[in-house]
């Protein structure tokens, strides 16, 4: 295949329409400024779901107020009209790498990380042991997961001390009626409404100064109505590294202050006890999930102590907690992609600054990665912008040596998808679905009065989403 040397726009396919993909597309559209005015681009954004936004729509708890702002920012980028959106198109099924190479000069993978990281302890396979990512997909109305979720446990353990663990625990402990102001689907509201939960326990391996969540996520725990936050004095241990982190890192200082203030408030005897409790435990390492008749009935932890460096060591003391469900939220992993080398241990595409590497460590011409599939599930959504800038910088450096597409016309890929019977959705179609979901919310409000205001109700079924988009 000849190298790209013509004056026509560079044709770029981006796989994934979450923040990583949209930020990469946005930066590419400004490439004339980045590369000195001699670059024009034509960008197609492909998404496996009928709707855009990836992680923002299907990976973050719906009661996060800041998410609306991020979604609005992504909407503005795609609504400009200089980036084409193809929804309901699955890479490796509807389009292969060979197809993409034939139609594009460069391909950027921005498929994220959606699987639960592995936790290998006895009992992990018991009924009632769940992946946090699977639960997130359920309450966010992902079209590829079951509409039902077994919410039968009164006492629940959530393993992990990151933002996802807090999301999972908050949704599990919150009263269903308080979630109606979000965009949760009707089946999720119905499931949460029947939950008999009284106690949700979050367990972290290290101490309060080493937690991985952010101050905003932590504070949101205290906003849940009729849910008490419960902490334990024996978990509040600080070593030299903890003290140094508190003094040098304002975020750590805020979180430790928040936690210690909550601990002090527990002794307020004038408080009316809530009907539900959310327990925060630190210095606990899970060693076994125990079961009865194949179902979770408890979980065993070893108590830890800080070792002076901020890390922990086991004390040899073990504690059993009676629970009927366990949710593991210890991280995400990316998924392997057809025809692309993959690092299964880290869950990423091997790359050098975004340039995808082959098995022998050389750059695969014209193939790039950005976001979590590039660097792993670390950093907040905002850090994805800098990550995309690095990847796009590499692509622009390589622009004169990109392998030229055989069929660079914009209509060609649409014709190919239609010839294969792929019912792809468009940006215009998303605007129709967006309006429909908002109409469902308005209809609910009209039927139930002003007690609850629902901005939208999310459509879950894939076929229904496609049909609404194509009306």
TrEMBL record:
Question: Into which EC class is this enzyme placed?
Answer: oxidoreductase
Judging by the UniProt lineage, the source's domain of life is Bacteria
For whether the record's keyword set contains Metal-binding, the answer is no
- Recorded GO terms, molecular function? ferredoxin-NADP+ reductase activity
Annotated positions binding FAD: 20, 47, 55, 372, 379-381
This protein's cofactor list reads: FAD
* Limits of the FAD/NAD(P)-binding domain: 11-189
**Enzyme Commission (EC) number:** 1.18.1.2
Swiss-Prot/TrEMBL catalytic activity: 2 reduced [2Fe-2S]-[ferredoxin] + NADP(+) + H(+) = 2 oxidized [2Fe-2S]-[ferredoxin] + NADPH
Q: Where does NADP(+) bind?
A: 161-164, 205-206, 217, 379
Q: Member of which family?
A: Belongs to the ferredoxin--NADP reductase type 1 family.
The identity of this protein, by name, is: ferredoxin--NADP(+) reductase
- Supply the source organism for this entry: Arthrobacter alpinus
